[in-house]
Every structure is written in C-alpha cells, then in structure tokens.
Amino acid sequence: MADEKRTERSYELRSEKVRSIVGQMPSSLVRYGITVIGGVLLCLFVVAYFLPYKQVYRGTATLPSIAPLPQADSVEVTLLLRFENKRPAQATGQRIYLQAPNCAFEGDITAFSVNRDSLYRQRAKCRFNAAEMQFVESQTVDFRMVYTSGNLLGRLLGGCGAEL
C-alpha cells in the first residue's frame, strides 16, 4: 500500500506531458527497432563465436649447416629463432613456415626453449623435408608461425583461452 502511494506521488510530481508519455505503450517502430538491434547484436556474437582467434609470430631464423642421412626423407634441425614483436611462451607441436629468397617450406616444431641468448634468439628443434633444407642451410631466413587459440568472442570478452 505504501509503495502504491509513493508511485502515485512520484507521478504527481511530474508534468502532464511526462505522465502521458509514461502511461503510453511504446510505438511499434520503437518496439521493432529494439528487436532488430537485439537480433543484429545476437548475430554478431554468433559470428564472433565461430571466428578463430589467430596469433601470428614472425621473425628471422638462423639455420646451421646440415649433414642429412642419404636415405632419410626428413631431418631434425635446431633453429635459432628471433621474434619481431611478441614471442610465444610455448610452441612445441606447432607448424613453422620458412621463407627463403628462392623457396618457401614448412616444418614442425618438436622442441622449443623459452630461454633466450644474448641476441634474443630462442632454440627450436624442427623437423623438415631433407631435400628442401639443402637450399637454405647456413643461412638466415624469415619465418612465420600461426597459432589458433580459441575463438574471437572469448578473446573479446577477456578470456585468454589456451595461449602459447
């Protein structure tokens, strides 16, 4: 009962125009507009949920001289990776793409050290095709690693997901 009196009193304190607006149901344009905005936001959230969040790491890789076995089709090489801006905390099991002036090839990281030397390089053991590695041995080439961690919606809402 006391609540009803407070509500009536708060309406009485307002002008006649305000009371008429408060007492009316919103127009169909306003109702449908709110529904459309809600639908668009829902669609954006659904799209952001299905888009993967990709982290790209770039830099230079120094390759040592390689003595592959004659019958081996792949070779394990220890690379010295120097990242440009950001560096992963863990990269074991990821793909690495090397870009040389005359060719490009890919391999798998089998072991990754988080320790850096005085030139800010990190050691990574990688497995590559032996025939491709002959073209770039004892050189410094560019590399790229792409790591997909979760979805864009989780990243936007503050969840870090599974980071490297």
Essential attributes:
single chain; 164 residues; alpha+beta; six-stranded antiparallel beta barrel; 5 helices; 6 strands; 31% helix
The level of helicity is 25-40%
Number of strands: 6
Main beta-sheet strand count, sense and barrel state:
6 strands, antiparallel, barrel
Computed CA radius of gyration, to the nearest angstrom: 30 Å
Shape: rod-shaped
Mean pLDDT: 80
Strand content: 35-45%
The spatial strand order of the largest sheet comes to 1-2-5-4-3-6
Give the termini separation: 61 Å
The computed structural class is alpha+beta
Q: Give the assembly state of these chains.
A: single chain
Sequence stretches where pLDDT stays below 50 over 5 or more residues: none
Report the total helices: 5
- Listing every helix as H and every strand as E from the N terminus to the C terminus, the arrangement reads HHHEEEEEHEH
Walk me through this protein's architecture.
The structure is a single chain. With 164 residues, the chain is α+β, with helices and mostly antiparallel strands. It has helices at residues 2-12, 16-23, 28-50, 130-133, 152-156, and strands spanning 52-62, 74-83, 95-99, 104-116, 122-129, 140-151. The protein has a 6-stranded antiparallel barrel with strand order 1-2-5-4-3-6. Strand 3 and strand 4 form a beta hairpin. It is rod-shaped, with a radius of gyration of 30 Å. It starts with a helix and ends in an 8-residue tail after the last helix. 12% of the residues are buried. The mean pLDDT is 80.
